[in-house]
Amino acid sequence: MYMSLEYILGKSLEGRELEEEEVLFLLEQKEKVTLDRIFETARKLRERYFGTKVFLYSFVYFSTYCKNNCSFCYFRNSNDMPPRYRKSVDEIVSTAMKMKAAGIHLIDLTMGEDPYFIDHPERLTEIVRRVKEETKLPIMISPGVLADEVIDELIRAGADWYALYQETHNRVLFGKLRAGQDYQARLHAKEYAKKQGMLVEEGLLTGVGNQLAEYVKSFEYMKRLGASQVRTMTFIPQKGSPMGECEQGSFLSELLNIAVMRLIFPKLLIPASLDVDGLRGLEERLNAGANVITSIIPPKEGYAGVANAVYDIDEGHRTIEGIQESIHKCGLRSATAEEYENWLQSRQNETRRLPA
Ligand code: SAM
Ligand code: MD0
Ligand code: SF4
Asked: How confident is the model at residue 3 (pLDDT cuts 50, 70, 90)?
């Protein structure tokens, strides 16, 4: 197959679907001039569908207990280093209200697979119901794998989004990263949530052994799933975990993945996460085509991040004020709550019409 960068970029700009080989060709690029052309095209596509708007997500890691032992994660069960806490419903609601007042568009309620909630899902439902009632903001849940009937309850309680990242679409690698967890059950949970009308976020990790061709497989799955938000996180080695001595994932791979996802999914939400390296690198992620800033965390309230448990949190760099300068430098602006709601509603209408 004949490959030319300008031909492939032109196809994306015309809204034509890229072939597997073409996506792989983009991911293989290393020269700065070529990467700059890819980033530029990604920005053009973002501008076409989102103008200068950027959406802002809060991250409320309300329980850091987890029964699992993911080899890449600081909060894995057998690590005794991370801070373990479980926030009360009132604390979570009060944090969410502060985030709303600061101008956040969505509350991402995240937990480890904490048996306190997994075995008593009504406790989880209560959190979602209260946060929804009080903030009236869109809600994302990131609780790990849940049973179908729990997903139904959470939808009734007001959850709009389900975030559940496969990290890789290579089963063998998944088995190493998420040892003891069921690959198919993880797929099923998000597919079920999607079928029931939720918006879903799928994601992958770079630097954990995924090959470029496997990123392509992940992108194909994101498409089949009908994901509305798609992400790549750079793996950060964690003290006290089996992958603690591994090398950190490459920032450039994350940036290129962001841009390539923008070319493939021009209309979707793509995060620039503050969790990977705080404020550092935010502008590059936005310039690669991201349009959501995630992992905005209130300082000095004792909330942890995931990939970076404390970095930049208490310094206030992971706040709405902390990110303004970077947003403006990239020629972008924070969207209004109404603009986010409008996007959400039209996406919900669109995905509910897609075949299951
Ligand atoms: N416990 C839930 C789960 O695993 O789905 C939700 C929270 S989990 C901590 C959220 C995501 O953080 C993981 O799916 C993974 O992509 C990311 N993550 C965890 N540890 C990371 C690390 N060391 N580096 C980069 N990303 C990481
Ligand atoms: C983030 N730390 O957005 C969060 C987390 C879970 N839905 C998101 C990985 O970077
Ligand atoms: Fe638990 Fe999630 Fe960390 Fe895995 S990634 S150990 S499920 S918190």
From this structure: confident
